[in-house]
TrEMBL record:
<dbReference type="GO" id="GO:0006935">
    <property type="term" value="P:chemotaxis"/>
</dbReference>
<feature type="domain" description="CheB-type methylesterase">
    <location>
        <begin position="15"/>
        <end position="203"/>
    </location>
</feature>
<feature type="region of interest" description="Disordered">
    <location>
        <begin position="336"/>
        <end position="358"/>
    </location>
</feature>
<protein>
    <recommendedName>
        <fullName>protein-glutamate methylesterase</fullName>
        <ecNumber>3.1.1.61</ecNumber>
    </recommendedName>
</protein>
<dbReference type="InterPro" id="IPR035909">
    <property type="entry name" value="CheB_C"/>
</dbReference>
<dbReference type="Pfam" id="PF01339">
    <property type="entry name" value="CheB_methylest"/>
</dbReference>
<feature type="active site">
    <location>
        <position position="145"/>
    </location>
</feature>
<dbReference type="InterPro" id="IPR011247">
    <property type="entry name" value="Chemotax_prot-Glu_Me-esterase"/>
</dbReference>
<dbReference type="GO" id="GO:0000156">
    <property type="term" value="F:phosphorelay response regulator activity"/>
</dbReference>
<keyword id="KW-0378">Hydrolase</keyword>
<dbReference type="GO" id="GO:0005737">
    <property type="term" value="C:cytoplasm"/>
</dbReference>
<feature type="active site">
    <location>
        <position position="54"/>
    </location>
</feature>
<feature type="active site">
    <location>
        <position position="27"/>
    </location>
</feature>
<keyword id="KW-0145">Chemotaxis</keyword>
<dbReference type="InterPro" id="IPR000673">
    <property type="entry name" value="Sig_transdc_resp-reg_Me-estase"/>
</dbReference>
<dbReference type="GO" id="GO:0008984">
    <property type="term" value="F:protein-glutamate methylesterase activity"/>
</dbReference>
Length: 358
């Protein structure tokens, strides 16, 4: 069969090309709905499918999914591999899965929302390469990856299918997408395959203009060098530090999703950035607690030594400082308790694999 860029699937009655590029993303809790989708695919499909699920660094996506649940083969993606219809391409560990017209690319670009591969990176590349022929599918997952990518797909004329967050094992990703992107369909796990078939059968519309910085963001995910001038045209500097590299973040102008990028290319939605900052704050508080406790211990020993030598004035000074440090310890412990309570009340517990390193 010819590569996917040479022909597009025709709608019934010759109404024009339909949707023959399907990109699927998820995280924790996404394996079961993914297998349900794959089980419902028909033999001889003229579409190509691409899958990113967040895995720990070095994790094997094929091992997570298990044997192919449907008629189409599962193919580990390789850089430069030709895209063929009737195949399901799986992201490689610690590489962004990207598509160009007719070709797969594995990108070494920076992490997005702390993940590589990132769902947003795949979705954007498909939107850039295939425009209205793309259907983006977002499944169960933690946090917020995928919403910005779905937004790009929609802006380029493609369609969006989102798992119903009310029945998703982890509703964070689908809920975030539905809050910002007008999805074409939302279905529970058992109905995703049928909903996808319905969307794929629709005639593809005209290509949308898409975000003006879409090509730049795909290039960043691929690991290609980009200029600070190009980033300056796409984003406005913000007085916020990148948690990954310590550089200055800029607010991306395009799209419905509030996002930030640094000059290195690390990318965050506002929600993912806030979650990462909370983690950093907790780490800083725990480090401060250890340092202050050790300082209190040291000053207490110095006070005891001064008393043994009969120097009551110096001993009293050290004892007063030890009491001050003990007060600081209590203050930091209260701050840690508040930080922990806030996270338990406002965040979903992390139960799935995390993203790989930068």
């Amino acid at each position: 069969m010819p590569p996917a860029q040479t022909r597009a699937q025709k709608a019934p009655g010759g109404a024009g090309p339909t949707h023959d590029i399907v990109v699927i993303g998820g995280s924790a809790g996404a394996v079961a709905p993914l297998r349900a989708i794959l089980a419902g695919l028909r033999p001889g499909s003229e579409a190509a499918y691409f899958v990113v699920l967040h895995t720990a660094s070095g994790g094997n996506l094929a091992a997570r999914i298990g044997p192919a649940p449907g008629p189409l083969p599962l193919v580990p993606a390789e850089d430069g591999m030709a895209i063929r219809p009737g195949r399901v391409y799986l992201a490689a560990a610690d590489r962004h899965l990207l598509v160009e017209p007719g070709t797969i690319r594995l990108g070494r670009g920076p992490r997005e929302n702390t993940s590589r591969p990132a769902v947003d990176a795949l979705f954007r590349s498909a939107a850039l390469a295939y425009g209205p022929r793309v259907v983006g599918v977002l499944l169960s997952g933690l946090l917020h990856d995928g919403a910005a990518g779905l937004d790009a797909i929609k802006a380029c004329g493609g369609l969006a299918l989102v798992q119903d967050p009310d029945e998703a094992e982890e509703p964070g990703m689908p809920r975030s997408a539905l809050a910002t992107v007008p999805a074409d369909a939302c279905a529970p796990s058992a109905g995703l395959s049928a909903a996808l078939s319905d969307l794929m059968a629709r005639p593809a519309g005209p290509r949308g203009a898409g975000p003006e910085d879409l090509a730049l963001e795909v290039a960043i995910a691929a690991g290609r060098t980009t200029s600070g001038e190009a980033m300056g045209r796409a984003a406005d500097p913000a007085p916020i530090t990148c948690p990954d590299c310590g550089g200055v973040l800029s607010q991306v102008r395009a799209g419905r999703v509030l996002r930030f990028r640094c000059q290195v290319g690390h990318a965050y939605t506002a929600e993912a950035l806030a979650d990462t900052q909370e983690d950093t704050l907790g780490d800083a508080l725990r480090l401060a607690l250890r340092i202050v406790k050790e300082r209190a211990e040291l000053v207490g020993r110095m006070a005891g030594d001064a008393r043994r030598r009969g120097n009551t004035l110096v001993a009293g000074m050290y004892e007063e400082r030890a009491r001050e440090y003990d007060g600081h310890v209590r203050t930091i412990r209260r701050a840690l308790t508040v930080e922990s309570d806030d996270r338990e009340a406002g965040a979903e517990p992390e139960t799935g694999p995390a993203g790989g390193p930068a």
